[in-house]
């Protein structure tokens, strides 16, 4: 066993970890990045980037199909070939991270490919090498697809997101298990390319953490495109044979050529040596303070809430929202702490999230339910997409959640084709706590989608 000294070890190089390693390397620290799969993590190779490339293609196909609604004719013959090729050429380099490794090294970092394990405070073991980090270790081990404990599922050749982005030939039919962001985004892409798709969701609605109004609009849009939606569905068993997959829902059997399991994620926290730094070895998430230092939380042997020596954590494993932008935001916070800067520290009041379906489901801050559960004296107002929506023949809505006592927005949701872009104004309003009275005095360009916010703001009973 060789011991190698350095300033910082980044264990797992997802978006946040890669950001930390590059920035600290650039700042002159001796950084070692450890990654056992691909530098950059899930987002560039199996998540955001290839899936959004697929969505862009599906969007173009769907837009072309709408030409007759507005004027003219269009014959659309979808072809998956160019999409699969573009994912290989432009998104993933055929699942090769040479460019990312070079970027890390060009910025002063050292790279070690392999599976790292904590070996006490400030220490990480990879194979025969133990890195001893003077400042400490940044954990960014991320998540992997989870498989629900359904009778018959294990051992079948079901897809996860990692298979779905690598598909070169489309199946005739697909059942998607899970109607969260991953399930819904993939379901619509494949349906738009001619696959017969059924979404099976155990909760009573799609994208169940979002506003009920959003779930309702998305379900209508799916059904209008021929996607079968089964909510409140319990899958009793999964069968697989020559005819493909059969899901037994009790009152119905759903069959398809392929099954995509998109039923949540599991944090990569098993067997990474958490016990060597005094943490529980069965954690679901790693608790952190506002500087991203790891805390001994309720599920650790010592649950005092004190911080663990020389250990930071960023990304999905912190349980603050499984998004690339959260991972990178937290990475920036950890960088500031490691470099001895004076904040700003982590604040999650205005975390945005966008599910890139058509219509997009975009939210920031608290939903109405989350705000009520948190004891906020809530006022809400909704509105449709107004003149722009009518002109473009698009349905959608905005919903605002305000704190009556403070007179500010604490959350908002926009469902529409450009929901994620319209959301930016609500992100600023929630983040900066701009009084609703001030927002009401703004100009809102006619006829934009965001003009719908003016009507909703005026509808708030404040
Ligand atoms: C299909 C899909 C679509 C998505 N779309 C979006 C989107 O549009 N927008 C968005 O914001 N988010 C999206 N996400 C979520 C986003 O991908 C993640 O939030 C993001 O990757 C951040 O994850 P992370 O930083 O926690 O690490 P991850 O990306 O999970 O990477 C962690 C890395 O750590 C490595 N690792 C784990 N354990 C070890 C170990 N012991 N030793 C060495 N290396 C280890 C892993 O190999 C992995 O590369 C999507 C996810 C999926 C699956
Ligand atoms: N556009 C984006 O930003 C984007 C896109 C995709 C994923 N993500 C991130 O990745 C995370 C994981 O996404 P996800 O969709 O896999 O997880 P999720 O946990 O958000 O959704 C999983 C869904 O599967 C359902 N489910 C679980 N077990 C089931 C079962 N046995 N039968 C039927 N349904 C079942 C759940 O009720 C839930 O609705 C998200 O929380 C999100 O943060 C983000």
From TrEMBL:
Cofactor(s) for this UniProt protein: FAD
Family annotation (Pfam families): Pyr_redox_2 (PF07992), Pyr_redox_dim (PF02852)
Keyword 4Fe-4S: no
Coiled coil feature spans: none
Domain of life where this protein originates: Bacteria
Disulphide bridges, residue numbers: 43-48
Database matches in InterPro entries: FAD/NAD-bd_sf (IPR036188), FAD/NAD-binding_dom (IPR023753), FAD/NAD-linked_Rdtase_dimer_sf (IPR016156), Pyr_nuc-diS_OxRdtase (IPR001100), Pyr_nucl-diS_OxRdtase_dimer (IPR004099)
Pyridine nucleotide-disulphide oxidoreductase dimerisation domain span: 351-456
Keywords: FAD, Flavoprotein, NAD, Nucleotide-binding
Positions of the FAD/NAD(P)-binding domain: 7-331
Residue numbers binding FAD: 52, 116, 316
Cofactor notes: Binds 1 FAD per subunit.
Residue sites binding NAD(+) per the record: 178-185, 201, 264
Family listed: Belongs to the class-I pyridine nucleotide-disulfide oxidoreductase family.
PANTHER family found in the cross-reference section: MERCURIC REDUCTASE
Name of the protein: NAD(P)/FAD-dependent oxidoreductase
Source taxonomy: Bacteria, Bacillati, Actinomycetota, Actinomycetes, Propionibacteriales
């Amino acid at each position: 066993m060789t011991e190698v000294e350095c300033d910082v070890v980044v264990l797992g190089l997802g978006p946040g970890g890669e950001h930390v390693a590059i920035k600290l390397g650039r700042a002159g620290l001796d950084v070692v990045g450890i990654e056992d799969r691909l530098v950059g993590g899930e987002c560039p190779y199996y998540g955001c980037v290839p899936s959004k490339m697929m969505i862009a293609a599906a969007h173009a196909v769907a837009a072309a199909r709408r030409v007759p609604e507005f004027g003219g004719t269009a014959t659309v013959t979808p072809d998956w070939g160019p999409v699969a090729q573009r994912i290989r050429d432009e998104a993933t380099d055929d699942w090769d991270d040479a460019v990312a490794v070079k970027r890390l090294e060009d910025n002063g970092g050292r790279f070690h490919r392999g599976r790292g394990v904590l070996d006490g405070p400030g220490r990480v073991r990879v194979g025969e090498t133990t890195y001893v980090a003077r400042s400490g270790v940044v954990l960014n081990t991320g998540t992997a697809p989870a498989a629900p404990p359904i009778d018959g599922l294990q051992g079948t050749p079901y897809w996860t997101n990692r298979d779905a982005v690598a598909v070169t030939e489309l199946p005739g039919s697909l059942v998607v298990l899970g109607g969260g962001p991953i399930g819904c985004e993939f379901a619509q892409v494949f349906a738009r390319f001619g696959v017969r798709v059924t979404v099976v969701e155990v909760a009573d609605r799609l994208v169940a953490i979002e506003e009920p109004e959003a779930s309702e609009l998305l379900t209508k849009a799916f059904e209008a495109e021929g996607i079968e939606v089964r909510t409140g569905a319990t899958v009793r068993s999964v069968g697989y044979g020559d005819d493909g997959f059969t899901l037994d829902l009790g009152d119905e059997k759903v069959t398809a050529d392929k099954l995509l399991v998109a039923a949540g994620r599991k944090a990569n926290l098993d067997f990474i040596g958490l016990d060597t730094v005094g943490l529980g070895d069965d954690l679901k998430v790693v608790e952190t303070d506002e500087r991203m230092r790891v805390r001994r939380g309720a599920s650790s042997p010592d649950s005092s809430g004190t911080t663990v020596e020389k250990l930071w954590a960023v990304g999905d494993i912190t349980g603050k929202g499984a998004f690339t932008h959260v991972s990178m935001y937290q990475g920036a916070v950890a960088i500031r702490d490691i470099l001895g800067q004076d904040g700003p520290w982590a604040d999650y009041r205005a975390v945005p999230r966008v599910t890139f379906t058509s219509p997009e489901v975009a939210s920031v801050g608290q939903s109405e339910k989350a705000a009520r559960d948190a004891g906020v004296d809530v006022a809400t107002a909704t509105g449709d997409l107004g003149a722009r929506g009518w002109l473009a023949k698009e349905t959608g809505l905005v919903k605002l959640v305000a704190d009556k006592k403070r007179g500010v927005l604490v959350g908002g949701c926009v469902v529409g084709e450009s929901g994620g872009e319209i959301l930016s104004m609500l992100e600023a309003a929630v983040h900066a706590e701009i009084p609703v009275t001030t927002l009401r005095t703004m100009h809102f360009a006619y006829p934009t989608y965001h003009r719908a916010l003016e009507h909703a703001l005026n509808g708030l009973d404040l």
